[in-house]
Write a structure and sequence with these properties.
Blueprint: H1 3-15, H2 18-25, H3 29-43, E1 48-51, E2 54-57, H4 59-86, E3 90-97, H5 105-116, E4 119-126, H6 129-137, E5 143-146, E6 155-163, E7 165-170, E8 181-182, E9 190-193, H7 200-211, E10 217-221, H8 225-233, E11 239-242, E12 253-259, E13 265-272, H9 278-290
Parallel strand pairs: 3-4, 3-5, 8-12, 9-10
Antiparallel strand pairs: 1-2, 5-13, 6-13, 7-11, 7-12
Length: about 300
């Protein structure tokens, strides 16, 4: 059923004549008459009877008017919602993340998204990389922030964050007097790090040391950076961490940039190649726009680590 025809019928029925209805609708009187006549033809019934006194509703017209008064607002709302969804202004987007993205990047991204997409519903899911990959491919996530640049078929990836490493160490440690710490200076130092086999981030940390000829003594293995900092604060050892982790201020910890970094802690933004929903694409572009530019590496250093 044509929405405009129904609007014209309701306006005429409530106004009692075509002239007042046309004025209320900002249409011509003949145009309103045509719309009502088309509606009657579509339904195969007479809705309005013309007599000497003006217009009168038939039984069918009375029944339709009662329903139309309820249906029209709901239809207008439904059409407005459909238009908003199509334009990428409303809807739900599920974003997976892991690690240091939550320390600085995601809070900034969410504040910006609230301004640019005030009617969007953003759901965050903290998941390990392998779980995010599975959820994205299963359509349980719309976007995924992962430490993995090698994508399977059907996935598009963009570099989102590229950070140099910093050294987290107890404030009283002798190396804390330096402005920068070379990787070679970590030789034989006790190290708190991620477990062996946990992924590219841990591999990059170890490679950074190996390239400098440093062999650290691993004392503790943990699954997240916050726990690593807690152990550094307790004096258990030092830790190599992405630079954003330094925003997690803890008493008794000093952060020093790693001199001549050769690798970066990278995070990538994934989406399914066939998912072109306007809201998903809008948030994808917002996150990429907000993402950090890759930091400068030392000459001869390797590229991405994830």
């Amino acid at each position: 059923m044509n929405l405009r025809r129904l609007e014209c019928f309701v306006a005429v029925a409530e106004a009692g004549n075509f002239r007042r209805a046309a004025k209320a609708l900002s249409l011509s009187q003949p145009g309103v008459s045509v719309h009502v006549a088309q509606l009657e033809a579509e339904l195969g019934v007479t809705l309005l009877e013309r007599n000497r006194r003006g217009l009168a509703l038939t039984a069918a017209g009375t029944a339709l008017l009662s329903r139309a008064r309820v249906l029209l607002p709901a239809l207008r709302e439904a059409l407005a919602e459909a238009a908003a969804v199509g334009e990428g202004r409303v809807g739900t987007v599920r974003i997976g993340f892991w690690g240091s993205a939550s320390y600085q990047f995601l809070p900034r991204a969410l504040r910006l998204a609230e301004r640019e997409f005030p009617d969007a519903r953003i759901l965050l899911r903290q998941m390990r990389t392998e779980s995010q990959v599975a959820a994205l491919l299963a359509r349980e996530l719309d976007l995924a922030i992962v430490r993995e640049p090698s994508v399977p078929i059907g996935v598009a990836a963009t570099l989102l964050i590229a950070e140099n490493f910093m050294v987290a160490l107890p404030s009283a440690h002798p190396l804390a007097t330096l402005r920068r710490i070379g990787a070679e200076q970590l030789h034989a130092q006790p190290l708190v790090t991620l477990p062996k086999g946990s992924g590219p981030l841990r591999d990059a940390m170890m490679a950074e040391l190996a390239d400098a000829g440093a062999t650290a003594v691993i004392v503790d293995e943990v699954t997240d950076m916050a726990t690593a900092l807690g152990l550094v604060s307790a004096g258990r050892g030092l830790a190599l961490v992405p630079s954003s982790v330094s925003s997690l201020r803890m008493p008794g910890i000093a952060f020093r940039p790693l001199a001549q970094p050769r690798r970066r802690a990278e995070q990538w933004l994934w989406r399914r190649s066939d998912d072109n929903k306007p809201l998903v694409m809008g948030l994808f572009e917002l996150l990429v726009r907000l993402g950090n530019r890759p930091q400068r590496l030392a000459a001869g250093g390797s590229g991405g680590v994830d």
